[in-house]
Amino acid sequence: MEGASGQRPLGVAVLGHGTVGAEVVNIIREDALDLQERIGAPLELRGVAVRDASSDRGIPAELLTTDAEALVRRDDVDLVVELIGGIELPRTLVRAALDAGKSVVTANKALLAAYTGELAEAAESHNADLYFEAAVAGAIPVIRPLTQSLAGDRVDRVMGIVNGTTNYILSAMDESGADYETTLAEAGRLGYAEADPTADVEGFDAAAKAAILASIAFHTRVTASDVYREGMSSITAADLTSARALNCTIKLLAICERISGPDGRDRVSARVYPALVPREHPLATVAGAFNAVVVEAQAAGRLMFYGQGAGGAPTASAVMGDLVMAARNRVQGGRGPRESKYAKLEIAPMSDIVTRYYVNLQVADRAGVLSAVAAEFATRGVSISAVRQEGAGDGARLVVLTHRATDRALADTVAALENLESVTAVTSVLRLEGSAE
Ligand SMILES: NC(=O)C1=CN([C@@H]2O[C@H](COP(=O)(O)OP(=O)(O)OC[C@H]3O[C@@H](n4cnc5c(N)ncnc54)[C@H](OP(=O)(O)O)[C@@H]3O)[C@@H](O)[C@H]2O)C=CC1
Ligand SMILES: N[C@@H](CC=O)C(=O)O
Fold first, then answer.
1. Which of 80, 170, 185, 203 is most open to solvent, judged by the fewest CB atoms within 10 Å of its CB?
2. Strands 155-161 and 290-297
3. How far apart are alpha carbons 356 and 336 in whole angstroms?
4. Cβ(304)–Cβ(293) under 8 Å?
């Protein structure tokens, strides 16, 4: 049957009706006429796959199914929107869709970071679109600028806050001294956190996003296992207080860089860790579930993208943008830009990365301790930028901030400090990013 536009309707299957899926289904149903105008053909919702089809979700019961695979394979489905989460089931469903020549929109960064090559090749060989704007930084357009707007430039660096849950927690701890557990539970209630919030707080979600960003920024294939990762669950109120004393805050950062290897050839570094960020840096002011991504490209210079990084409606905005693009491509009989020919750049090990360390040590409060600690830095060629003693007696602590050095030298220094007789404990080690020095 043809729509008012004269074009055959495009059948859409939405897999998942949770935080994001429910918003997407609402927009498809409520904005049907506007979408038809923008696409040039009506979108018709063929079904919504869920785990539990018995609950009332405010949509016609006949749309609901627990058989996602059968829904994807229906002949009247042209476009598949995957919003289930996880890896293996969505992989099967997305492959089934692409192999049948259906275009796919997904917000699933874990899936993409694990199987980017396989899925891109399936899309390529079956002439289908695979879009994933929502997989990185929620509502913020960052995938399309990197894959299209900057396709003719050379990107050197992408650094950002790409996880809303952890930014929500760190901002609340910093601004009001809020408690970690309470704020994490709140992030879950607000729909920011993953089904298993370990993915957020241990940096897996940000690492998956870093893999996607590095892949498209550097036209190479980077998977989640290539990303160096540290989570933020061990950050304490004391760390934030010390950061404040240095005029910094703490943010979970994803950093993707093109760096030169020892043979002069380009390599890629992708890493995620909580870092001190100077308060005057633009990323320091990004609060709550907001995300921001700073891109440095040779001709464009520095660009910054900012907005809501998590939550049902913001993420649905990015999903719908992709769905409209994929649908338009169908109407016009083509497909969007392909994955760039990939360069297979080597992954640089973390030990080669040059960074700055902040080290917090519990120490004996007696003469000679400072020089013993300083000697461990000096022996490994690490220059100290600032040292401060906090507390006295049993509560004595030394806070050391270094100048730039390789992560290898910094990590070796910390290992040596752990064995120093006058150091009772290395209480925290964080990197400092975004400083001019
Ligand atoms: N929430 C956010 O802010 C963002 C999420 N994302 C990504 O979007 C995706 C969806 O996230 P979100 O909406 O938060 O997840 P939810 O957990 O809220 O929703 C998941 C949905 O998938 C359905 N589902 C689960 N297993 C199956 C199955 N075997 N068959 C059919 N349906 C199934 C669930 O059904 P039922 O309702 O019956 O339980 C539910 O409707 C994830 O990949 C996530 O990483 C990306 C950016 C932001
Ligand atoms: N759990 C994620 C959701 C969006 O990707 C986050 O907190 O950023």
1. 185
2. antiparallel
3. 41
4. yes
Atom of ligand 2 nearest to the CA of 309: 8
Q: Which domains does the chain have, with CATH numbers?
A: 10-135+313-332 (3.40.50.720), 143-310 (3.30.360.10), 350-432 (3.30.70.260)
Distances from the Cα of 170 to the Cαs of 7, 80, 249, 429, 431, in angstroms? Answer: 50, 35, 9, 17, 16
Q: Express each pLDDT in 192-240 by its tens digit.
A: 999 999 999 999 999 999 999 999 999 999 999 999 999 999 999 989 9
* Cα dihedral 152, 153, 155, 159 in deg (nearest 10): -90
Determine if the pTM surpasses 0.90.
Answer: yes
Q: Which of 108, 112, 186, 200 to mutate to test the pocket of ligand 2 (most atoms within 8 A of CB)?
A: 200
Q: What is the largest CA-CA distance in the chain?
A: 87
List of residues 6+ apart from 176 with CB closer than 8 A: none
Cβ of 202 less than 6 Å from ligand 2: no
Per-residue pLDDT tens for 378-435?
999 999 999 999 899 999 999 999 999 999 999 999 999 999 999 999 999 999 999 8
Residue 214, SS3 per DSSP: helix
Contact by Cβ (8 Å): 356, 401: yes
Would you say the CB of residue 19 lies under 6 angstroms from ligand 2? no
**Residue 209 is a catalytic residue:** yes
Query: Can you tell me whether residue 25 is helix, strand or coil?
Result: helix
Catalytic residue among 109, 209, 341, 344, which?
A: 209
The closest alpha carbon to 291, from 416, 403, 160, 410, belongs to 160
Within 10 angstroms of residue 428's Cβ, the number of other Cβ atoms is 17
Check: complex ipTM more than 0.90: yes
Neighbours of 181 (CB within 10 A): 9
Q: 314's torsion region: left (phi>0), alpha (psi -120 to 50) or beta? A: alpha
Evaluate whether 165 touches 173 at the Cβ level (below 8 Å): no
With beta carbons less than 8 A apart as the criterion, state whether 299 and 153 touch. yes
Whether the per-residue pLDDT at 342 is higher than 80: the answer is no
C-alpha angle 322-326-328 in degrees, rounded to nearest 5: 115
